Amino acid sequence: SLLAGFVMGSRLPRHTYGFIQHELFPYYFHIGSACAFLNLTLFAMYHPSELLSDEQMTQIFVFFVCVAASVLNTQWFGQVTSDIVADMHLVERSHGLGQEVGLFASKSCRQLRASNPSYGQLSRQLTLYWALSSLCNLCCIVCNGLSLYYLAARLSAL
């Protein structure tokens, strides 16, 4: 998904890329949430709470953090980010922008941001929510890495 995003972003008009991301992100976020919840549920089912070691309690906590970050992204950050992008596209379209190719804002978009306070505000909001969404994704990647480490460290015990 990350690689596809960079390839599409560098090859498609910005609004086309934004539309594709708007359509794909809900699936990505929901699948991530479902997998995180499934990991937590399966681990909890096979490790009764009265017998949990400190390491297993840590693993449950890691799974819970992953579920929380994933659900937060699914239900809030991802949706708000998509909504802001859609609002920005409306403003850009009204100024004849959005068909340029590339991930980074064109000179025209930078000028629009400087001259249009509401567009500038949308741009700042997008930066904030995109960063929060990215942090949630990064948190899930770290949690999954820790879970894989926990599992790999115990392979000899299987």
TrEMBL record:
Residues 3-84 form the TMEM205-like domain. Keywords: Membrane, Transmembrane, Transmembrane helix. InterPro entries: TMEM205, TMEM205-like. The keyword Transmembrane helix applies. Pfam families: DUF4149. The chain crosses the membrane at residues 27-46, 58-78, 128-152. GO terms for cellular component: membrane. It is found in: Membrane. The keyword Membrane applies. This is TMEM205-like domain-containing protein. It comes from Eudyptula minor novaehollandiae (Australian little penguin). The lineage of its organism: Eukaryota, Metazoa, Chordata, Craniata, Vertebrata.
